[in-house]
Amino acid sequence: MVVPTDIDIANQVTKKPIKEIAERIGLLESEWEPYGNYKAKISLSLLDRLKNKPDGNLVLVTSINPTSAGEGKSTVTVGLGQAMNQLGHQTVVALREPSLGPTMGLKGGASGGGYAQVVPMEDINLHFTGDIHAITTANNALAAFIDNHIFQGNECNIDTRRIVWKRVVDLNDRALRNVVIGLGGAKQGVPREDGFNITVASEIMAIFCLASNLSDMRKRLANIVVGYRPDETPVTVADLKVEGALTLLLKEAVMPNLVQTLENTPAIIHGGPFANIAHGCNSLLATKMASKLGDYVITEAGFGADLGAEKFLNIKARIGELDPKAVVIVATIRALKLHGGVEQGKLNEENIDGLREGIKNLKKHMETIESFGLPFVIAINRFVHDTENEITFVQRWCKEQGVEVALTEVWEHGGKGGIELANKLVETIEQKQANFTPLYHLKDTMQDKMKQIAQKVYGAKDVSFTPQVEQQIKEMTALGWGNLPICMAKTQYSLSDDPNKIGRPEDFVITVRELRPSIGAGFIVALTGDVLTMPGLPKEPAALKMDMDDQGRAVGLF
Predict the structure, then answer these.
(1) Is residue 274 annotated as a catalytic residue, yes or no?
(2) Which one is catalytic: 411, 465, 508, 523?
(3) HSE-up (13 A, CA, CB side) for residue 45
(4) Catalytic site residue 275?
(5) Is 278 one of the catalytic residues?
(6) Could you say which of 208, 274, 303, 523 is catalytic?
(7) Does the annotation mark 165 as catalytic?
(8) Mean predicted confidence (pLDDT) in 440-467
């Protein structure tokens, strides 16, 4: 049996004109702008028109710690949305935009897979409507403004040794992590060390995804700290007087994007911060729009519940005053066995002992979601090599824990493969009261916030702060930044800050090695372990398999 590729499946499906999708969810003609036949931008005016309409039921899809190839969280999100619509529930899917870094690197695209995809997948996984490119341009324009300001006399007295703003590119390019700029003589600028981040780690991406409207975005952009003076006072975008120009560069991009799934379920895709080095959620504007347009909203947050879900609930939901009703925790037999110590090359072989050990990782993520006061359903995302014995083991274990579990086969069967999950989700929302509460108070000290995340979400024994971080905490608290949420940058492969500590490690200490202020976004980034803000490409990147056929159609995208 020849299994068709994701791009082959996507090319075989008949898409509806985006006008039909817009009309289906009640958009007025003046509230959307077509980008070709199958994509559209949604006007922010929609939120003003529907401000008094009750929000739909917000559902967050998260997962256990994934394997290096990813375990289908976006696929389950899309398939669940399709299943909900098959059951007659007006449902809108809300997803992040894929970054070209992982698309051409190791992980591949982020438009779902199999018969649970958003389309046109080749556009979505490449340049889409240009949002990420606009963010890249705004970020690098600010970098140019900073260096020009210094060259032209440095009126703000920026200490060139303490510039914290970096340039970005939406690719994995390790050679750009540390660079020197301004070489070539007096007319070429002021020489200094610099570096690049990947665009999805940019503070402008975070601002883009947390702004409530254009005015709020402009205010947040103005609050960006670009560097410090010799007396250690911060220099902001407002000091440079360029917040208006940056807002102008983002005026089209800030409108969320409307597309559809393979089964014509409406999908809003907007914003794309990584969850290991950023806050990992699609834009607040997209989520709020979906909540006004659907009775149910199915959204996802990057990587496991220790990363994306924690940041969705402690940062995004707090800032946006969101009221999630339930969570779906995606687990795969492969990932559970990996966490049970089974070798990567033997994950396709039946191993109940490995499952029994690895399921402790799922247990920790269940406890994390419970600590936020939210009900949940476990989704077993079935892979072709999963055996009946293994599936039965996980199902029986979940029932012994007293939690709902559903076998999910949306990759193979689309919405039909998610009907069981959809039914159990609706029952859970109707029968169990959500009592959502963030894990920490903003008035808690920065140390306490990091300790609560590490202990309650990761299961750490304690948190260690380097001398640099101890000094940064004092400085940031004195500057009035102590009441901001914390965005922990941590490996996705482990509950700890060491990717080699799989399963459910115990008695470990999280080491915070550096703090980076994202004052415009409204949080402090805490870097742990060896997590990088500019990834590198693997030995055989996915790009090696990408091409175009003679008809101009994409080949090798997944």
Answers:
(1) no
(2) 411
(3) 8
(4) yes
(5) no
(6) 303
(7) no
(8) 97
